[in-house]
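User: For my dataset I need records formatted as: sequence, then structure tokens, nothing else. Please produce one.
Assistant:
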Amino acid sequence: MAKFNSYLLGKIRNSVGNVTTCYVNKQNIAKAKIFARKDVKTPEILAQRARMKALTAIVRRALPVIRKGFAGIGKGSPSNAFTAANMGAIVVDEKYNTTIDYEHLLLGNGMLYPPKVSAEYTEETKKYSFMQETQESEDGFALPNDKVYAVLLEETMNRTKLVALRDRGESGSTSYALPEDWDASKVHVYCFATTKNGRSASDSLLIQ
């Protein structure tokens, strides 16, 4: 901090660069701005940041899926709901490297009952076949006109594909071709259901 008098500038109250000036007790005072802040980087904070970074990367690639699977969860955005639900699905080692626990990763979350879907991949045709079982109404937690979706997640490229299947009340098979640049050995397959209006969802299930 420095005190000075300036007959040319008079009373100065302004900021220039990293210097702030003010007029106190009939004197001009110049003070340097403080840009540095204390940032206590505990292991817990660093691990939390690593999880957030990993989940943010998934959100960027899977936003259309997340908007379907986390509709109506809490008062925040679907992205925030996805992040909160999946903190435990990101494993952090002692060097703060992260690994996704795909078995516990949720791509859908809600009060509806999950659909009954199985999946098979045929190498010769490079197609998935999704087989659905008919589900009856169950106290509002499952309705025949609920929409059912499959999700393909390719872990190397961190990409997702949302596949619309049959309504919950229908049975049958739906086929879907794997994108040409995807490695089938790195693909995880999930399914979940939503209400017809898309305002509620079920938890997702890892089916392959």
